[in-house]
Design brief:
Layout lengths: L1 H23 L4 E12 L22 E15 L2 E9 L1 H6 L10 E9 L6 E9 L19 H4 L4 E10 L5 E9 L1
Antiparallel strand pairs: 1-2, 2-3, 3-4, 4-5, 5-6, 6-7
């Protein structure tokens, strides 16, 4: 019991010190992690463990599987920012099947620079989150637990350059040059 209390106290202290450091200097790094586990069962008991071929999420049946495990980090200091997200799971394996093995596990990797002193105009380049559709590869960000078929075949990422301007909190404009997704 003493070990559990000690571990809880140490974890709480570590969390508080990291949070305090981020509040004092919010221009540094931020990290996040996400895990989407699932178990599906098909009462038709097909021979294959894969579900329908046009689905890219939650595609295995009769087994506990990771749809997406995602670790992301962001950096912003002054007029520069960068994002890197690495993923693993059946979503990455199925959706990125035609990508080279080393690139399949990249969720996002981009770098940006503010073109004005108020940081309202940004030029970003790399693997960016998609502007198409209303769903995300991250299931917790979607309106419903299950994905719609229309979103299942829309890109969740895009590769290229984006020039973005945030006119206000309500208005954001972007010009994109994309060479793939």
């Amino acid at each position: 019991m003493k070990k559990w209390i000690l571990a809880a106290v140490l974890f709480a202290n570590a969390h508080l010190s990291i949070s305090q450091e981020m509040k004092e200097n919010p221009e540094l790094f931020s990290f996040s992690a996400f895990l989407d586990l699932y178990y599906g069962y098909d009462f038709n008991e097909p021979l294959s463990k894969k579900r329908l071929p046009f689905l890219y999420n939650h595609t295995r049946q009769d087994q506990l599987a990771i749809n997406q495990a995602l670790i992301s980090g962001s950096f912003q200091k002054d007029r520069f920012r960068a994002n890197l997200g690495l993923q693993h799971g059946t979503y990455a394996k199925d959706n990125y099947a035609d990508e080279p093995e080393a690139l399949r596990w990249i969720y996002q990797a981009n770098f940006g620079v503010a073109l004005d002193q108020h940081q309202k105009v940004w030029l970003d380049a790399g693997v960016l989150p998609s502007h198409i559709g209303f769903e995300s590869a991250i299931s917790k960000d979607n309106l419903t637990l299950s994905r719609s078929i229309i979103a299942e075949n829309s890109p969740y990422f895009e590769t290229g350059v984006k020039l973005g301007w945030e006119k206000s909190e309500a208005w954001y404009f972007a010009l994109l040059y994309l060479n793939g997704w």
